[in-house]
Specification:
With 415 residues, the protein is an alpha/beta fold. 39% of the residues lie in helices and 17% in strands. The chain contains 16 helices and twelve strands. The strands form two sheets. It has a six-stranded parallel sheet. Strands 7-8-12-9-10-11 form a six-stranded mixed sheet, sandwiched between helices. Strand 7, helix 12 and strand 8 form a beta-alpha-beta unit. Helix 13 packs across helix 16. The relative contact order is 0.14.
């Protein structure tokens, strides 16, 4: 197996460990009696709904919203597609309908909520007094600012009529179980998809401070809404959430462990750097290049694996994606070191808003780029890592995987 083939197999092992068809049924309780309503949102939510249908069978009803291109056939649970990462009217309409689905339920009813990464953008119902355009403007600014996912979602929860525990409050007094596929560092249920069914520890004041930290000039209605603090999100101890529980069914750590097993079977030692790494993508790439060079100097044959969610502060006008940017930063720092190959990709199959999951790098990446008249450092300054790897034929294109356990990075040393 070539280094590139092995890297792809490590990625595939990580994705397979988070396949909803595998991880959802194992965490389903015995089918409840009475009326069962299934709702949810995220890039994996449609596949999760299909797994529930297979496990429980009819009668079922409900509504799921997923990203365009991520739907799968279902028989009884309706699936709607909407925009990600910037929300659209389809997501707002679906969120409104989900609230209507759970309104007026009683204690004998059961709500199963299926949540995965991407749900924040897909459940795009603005708080009273705000418009979809307001939310789109703030989301776009946050995506370009370098804010981490926890900061982004603290803001989005306070501009929403459904996130930050509000969906669970609307379903009260029905029993509610949320199954979550985690795509956030630390697997915090309050951060995954902005925690629509779990208590929200963040506040309006924190949301205002985050916008100020990144110099985001929000639309006037958003500023007024955050200053007015009319209705805070449900907090820990809120009685409306007493009958709501949440379980993590797949996580970055479990996927990294599966990839590590595959690497060891291929004869590599494994260095696990953690599943919750954050920071500027290119800077993390440079730091990981240092680790790889040190391992190479020691004569090690090792797979360096990591997960988490980096950020990109967009200053240029190129096509990027945080994994492509990480990889170009890594490649420049390696400077054609022999025997080091790497892959960085998003396990959902979409690197940012591009059509690739990520990309591959090899010892000859820089030489091949320069032979084609490409200045890799200049492209990185322009946030155009995608453009570099596209010209070289080194993009990893998988299409939607219909799961999402965040970024996956692998460096093979001594291959």
């Amino acid at each position: 197996m070539s280094p590139r083939e092995l890297l792809r197999s490590l990625f595939d092992a990580a994705v397979a460990a988070a396949d909803p068809a595998v991880c959802v049924p194992a965490h389903l309780p015995a089918r409840p009696g009475g009326r069962v309503i299934v709702v949810g949102a995220g890039k994996a939510s449609a596949a999760m709904a299909a797994a529930v249908e297979q496990a429980w069978g009819p009668p079922l009803e409900g509504l799921i919203v997923t990203r365009y291109g991520h739907a799968v056939p279902t028989r009884w649970i309706e699936v709607v597609e909407a925009s990600h990462p910037v929300p659209d009217a389809a997501g707002a309409a679906a969120a409104r309908r989900i609230l209507q689905r759970v309104d007026g339920l009683g204690v004998e009813d059961f709500v199963l909520c299926l949540i995965s990464g991407g749900g924040s953008a897909l459940l795009a119902l603005p708080a009273p007094g705000l418009t979809l355009a307001d939310k789109q403007a703030v989301t776009t600014a946050l995506l370009r600012s370098g804010a981490n996912i926890g900061e982004m979602n603290a803001v989005r929860k306070h501009l929403s009529a459904i996130k930050g525990g509000r969906l669970a409050a609307a379903a009260h007094p029905a029993r509610l179980l949320t199954l979550m596929i985690s795509d956030v560092p630390g697997d915090d249920p309050a951060t995954i998809a902005s925690g629509p069914t779990v208590p929200d520890p963040t506040t309006f004041a924190e949301a205002r401070a985050i916008l100020a930290k990144y110099g985001i000039a929000a639309p006037a209605p958003v500023v007024a809404h955050l200053e007015r603090m009319a209705e805070e999100s449900p907090k820990p101890g809120d009685p409306r959430l007493a009958a709501a529980t949440a379980r993590i069914v797949a996580s970055p750590a479990l996927s990294l462990a599966a990839a590590a097993d595959r690497a060891r079977a291929a004869g590599y030692d494994v260095d696990l750097l953690g599943d919750a790494l954050e920071g500027e993508a290119r800077e993390l790439g440079r730091a990981h290049a240092g680790l790889a060079l040190k391992a190479a100097a020691a004569g090690r044959r090792v797979a360096i694996l990591s997960g988490g969610e980096t950020t990109v502060t967009v200053r240029g006008r190129g096509r990027g994606g945080r994994n492509s940017e990480y990889l170009l930063g890594l490649t420049l720092a390696l400077s054609e070191a022999v025997g080091i190959h790497a892959l960085a990709a998003d396990t959902d199959g979409i690197d940012g808003s591009e059509d690739n999951a990520g990309a591959f790098a090899a010892p000859d990446t820089l030489a091949r780029a320069r032979a084609r008249g490409i200045d890799p450092a200049a492209r990185l300054a322009e946030n155009d890592a995608y453009g570099v790897f596209a010209v070289l034929g080194d993009l990893l294109v998988t299409g939607p995987t219909r799961t999402n356990v965040n970024d996956f990075r692998a460096i093979l040393v001594g291959s």
